[in-house]
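Lecture notes, unit on protein representations.

Consider one protein chain, 255 amino acids long.
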Amino acid sequence: MKKLYASLVLVGLVTVPSLAAAADSPHSLSGNVSLTSNYVFRGISQTSAEPAIQGGLDYTHSSGIYLGTWASNVNWLKDYQGYDSGSLEIDLYGGYRGAFGDISYDVGAITYIYPGDKGTATTADTSEVYAAVGWKWFTVKYSYAISDEVFGFANADGSDYWDLAASVPLGDSGFTAGAHWGTFSFDKNSAQDYDDWKLSLTYDMGKLSGAMSGVTVGVAYTDTNAKKSVWTNTFGATSEFLGDSATTVWISKAL
């Protein structure tokens, strides 16, 4: 049954129609939907190495202002955080971006919402502000937590995350190579601090057929130096180290 469900999702990713807007309109909508073998965020598995279905919708104005939302299934709320119920992440974000020649910039804010019954656990809901600067294929991004709780850790406002990334197209082959390094520092919760890194390769399926325009497949290897004693499920049926090395494959469709 799981294989049938995954097959139906894959067919849907390829055949879902694109969002369209008038060519002369200052407003645009775009979307995305994906199926991944493991949802890894900042090096930490959000699904205990299980698959996830994800999707988002973005509004952009020609001035550079944007708003968006994105969602995914997760299981760490119950298995790691100790929620009584909860298996969904919903992100709401907005900001302003633009460019000067090869230099791009992006400033904004994001709220990670985790619906469910937290019982006696610390809330996982988290709000951050961020700023990013890019040059051609390279980007540096800084995120700063403004909520009291940060992904389930109390009194952690002021925690921050640095993200250094590169995304390099390999000629006109349709392949893009990626690399990332990040470091997460938790204010007043230093035992949770860690670095993470990733290597990835994606392929634009539109190179094979116009019918597959907007479809991308990819593979990534991720790892961290997170402490196993801190980042391991304690409430789940099995003990799972969420910061362990992982190889993830996915398919996505831009709408």
